[in-house]
């Protein structure tokens, strides 16, 4: 489970930061999930090591332009490349109408299936390995945060140990891996737990933007191994954050601390804190770390491997 930031600015791009988009890479299944798709996201793909051909799911937090204006361009390019099998889109009400309007007026024709899922609070996707859920945030328009939970996996199966006691390879190994008890033809019985290491605890990734501090973000971020949370404003500009329903660096840190998250990475920074101004991004980082020490600051193309819980 690997995160790559494709855009970390708020509202408008800057010379060094594009607008919002984060890629979640699932290397064991050669799959890529995208969270938000601001203008220029497809160009950010070209500047990264990510393969757009692996893109299968896109999760949109809300319908403000800096989170969706890159969607039509990316989907159209995927169609022209001809190497995407299917893309599922998840987002709030209005996403499908937005996409249909773009298709109609640009006369774009996708060469692969695109399905839009209108989301509501709760589980919105589940397979054998992952659960994706969403919850409401507090912004000027309907907005959702996302939580990706990796399911626990059985521990490592010790093949050499099984061979040493004379268990023949084949279906019996599969049963032992599942923790079952098997009986050999000579009457001996073996428990699967004796040949497997401890279960691998699944990781939890949470993405919260755009929002002012709210209980919904805290609930989503509970015990997260990685929380990515917007920090548009410095603490000094808290009134502006409340007026515009965005978060300060201290709000993001408070969410992480209350939720018991392991790591916080802040993103979605206002361009007003560019170098040379009275307040710069390093000041936002110090503000957050004073509340939640395990805080990092995102930048475009930062890649972070979500650690497995121990």
From TrEMBL:
Q: Top EC class per UniProt?
A: hydrolase
GO molecular function per UniProt: 3'-tRNA processing endoribonuclease activity
Q: Which parts of the sequence belong to the Metallo-beta-lactamase domain?
A: 18-262
> SMART domains given for it?
Lactamase_B
Instruction: Cite the binding residues for Zn(2+) 1.
Output: 62, 64, 139, 210
Under Pfam families, the record lists: Anti-Pycsar_Apyc1, Lactamase_B_2
Q: Which CDD domains match?
A: RNaseZ_ZiPD-like_MBL-fold
- Catalytic residues at 66
Explain how, and how many, cofactor molecules are bound: Binds 2 Zn(2+) ions.
Keywords noted in UniProt: Endonuclease, Hydrolase, Metal-binding, Nuclease, tRNA processing, Zinc
Q: Which residues bind Zn(2+) 2?
A: 66-67, 210, 268
Tell me which EC number(s) this protein carries: 3.1.26.11
Q: Which reaction does it catalyse?
A: Endonucleolytic cleavage of RNA, removing extra 3' nucleotides from tRNA precursor, generating 3' termini of tRNAs. A 3'-hydroxy group is left at the tRNA terminus and a 5'-phosphoryl group is left at the trailer molecule
The record's section on InterPro entries has: Metallo-B-lactamas, RibonucZ/Hydroxyglut_hydro, RNase_Z/BN
User: What cofactor does this chain's UniProt record say it requires?
Assistant: Zn(2+)
Q: Its biological function?
A: Zinc phosphodiesterase, which displays some tRNA 3'-processing endonuclease activity. Probably involved in tRNA maturation, by removing a 3'-trailer from precursor tRNA.
Family classification: Belongs to the RNase Z family.
Quaternary structure? Answer: Homodimer.
Name this polypeptide is given: Ribonuclease Z
Which species is this record about? Answer: Microcoleus asticus IPMA8
Name of the coding gene: rnz_1
């Amino acid at each position: 489970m690997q995160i790559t930031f494709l855009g970390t600015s708020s509202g408008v791009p800057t010379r060094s930061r594009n607008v919002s988009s984060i890629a979640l890479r699932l290397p064991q299944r050669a799959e890529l999930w995208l969270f938000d798709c601001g203008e220029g996201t497809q160009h950010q793909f070209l500047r990264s090591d990510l393969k757009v051909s692996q893109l299968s799911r896109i999760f949109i937090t809300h319908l403000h332009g800096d989170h969706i204006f890159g969607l039509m361009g990316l989907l159209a390019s995927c169609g022209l490349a001809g190497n995407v099998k299917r893309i599922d889109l998840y987002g709030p009400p209005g996403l499908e109408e937005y996409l249909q309007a773009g298709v109609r007026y640009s006369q774009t024709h996708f060469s692969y299936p695109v399905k839009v899922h209108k989301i509501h609070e709760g589980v919105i996707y589940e397979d054998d390995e992952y659960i994706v859920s969403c919850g409401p945030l507090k912004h000027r328009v309907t907005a959702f945060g996302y939580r990706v939970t990796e399911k626990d996996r059985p521990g490592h199966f010790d093949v050499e140990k099984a061979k040493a006691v004379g268990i023949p390879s084949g279906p019996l190994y599969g049963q032992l891996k599942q923790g079952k008890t098997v009986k050999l033809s000579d009457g001996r019985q073996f428990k699967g737990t004796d040949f497997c290491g401890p279960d691998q605890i699944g990781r939890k990734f949470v993405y919260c933007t755009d929002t002012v501090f709210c209980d919904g973000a805290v609930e989503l971020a509970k015990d997260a191994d990685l929380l990515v949370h917007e920090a548009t404003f410095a603490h000094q500009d808290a009134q502006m954050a409340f007026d515009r329903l965005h978060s300060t660096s201290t709000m993001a840190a408070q969410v992480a601390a209350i939720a018991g998250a392991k790591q916080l990475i802040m993103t979605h920074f206002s361009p007003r804190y560019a170098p040379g101004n009275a307040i710069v991004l390093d000041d936002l980082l110090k503000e957050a770390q004073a509340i939640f020490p395990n805080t990092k600051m995102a930048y475009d193309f930062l890649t972070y491997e979500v650690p497995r819980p121990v």
